[in-house]
Please model this.
Amino acid sequence: MTEEVLTFIDNGVGRIRLNRPKAIHALTPGMCEAVNEALLAWRKDDAVVAVMIDHAPAPDGDPKLSRGFCAGGDIALIANSAKADCVEAERFFHVEYRMNHLLFVYDKPIVAFIDGITMGGGVGISLPARYRVATERTMFAMPETGIGLFPDVGGGWFLPRLPGRIGAYLAATGGRIDGADAKAIGLATHYMPSEKLEDVKAKIMADPASLAAILDAGTETPPPSKLESQRADIDRLFASDRYEDILAALNADGSEWAQKQLSVLATKSPQTIKVALRQLVEGAAFTDFADNMRNEYRIACHVIRRPDFVEGVRAVIFEKDNAPKWEPATPEAVTDALVDSLFAPLPPEKEWTPLPELSA
Model:
């Protein structure tokens, strides 16, 4: 069997190459464990100057298998576990969130090339990197409200730190943005045409100590950002942290753009949107990324036991009828008490913790 993630050292660069093309490189627990193992080994290896995260080219250049950097996590595994005892799902979240945290606190510079579909788990493995390179093929999204999960893998930290109310808008709607948008709002640090990537990677491999200068030299001005042109509407209409207020603002506005957002939101889990809006408020207040990941792990363990997650995955991933029956079905029916219960602490022995090697 081909390794689903390749980890090796190439002339002073620790390489992490996602290699699961048929699943658009979606992460499995084993892939996250392999990344953690490599990163921990390279921390104390003076021969490793920098780390590069990308995806391996598709076999035979098959365009159908060349769409993504990383489309997320192994949702099927999580959903099947949620239908049973949740043990495998909880183990997956625990190891994945440890990977997100390790990337965030890593001492050596990391560059992630987000060339293609970057969603969910793909966001989590790239945003903690110091340098994030987008291209014209980048399609970035946190689409979890559509499957009854929540924008995890660090979304609670990164989304509220975006300009204005863009984070709340992306979390609630699951909106997809392109590489120009990602660069405009700071999700990407650099933008360059995909045809330049191999040359830039080769230069980094030849001189890893000059990583930042090489990226700066290779960057190009992206096309105008469509998201930036919508900023005023986003900041005004998604201004509230209360879902009912957002819906009221969109209804009162009545513009074509507002109507489009209402129809998008109508397909999403009301529970998940309320969870996401609160998650972003709490995430904005954290000063330690580990506290954010502990909070997200609590939410994950509670949310997978609620009906919306299994139903959302059924409707969007498994049966693809795109007609989920949410429970509760309306925002008003999602009570504060229900939302509170999804943020409740876990028993001490079940709480999330960073990798023990980080405190050694």
Observations:
- The chain has a mean pLDDT of 95.
- Residues 145 and 272 are 5 Å apart (CA to CA).
- The two ends are 35 Å apart (CA to CA).
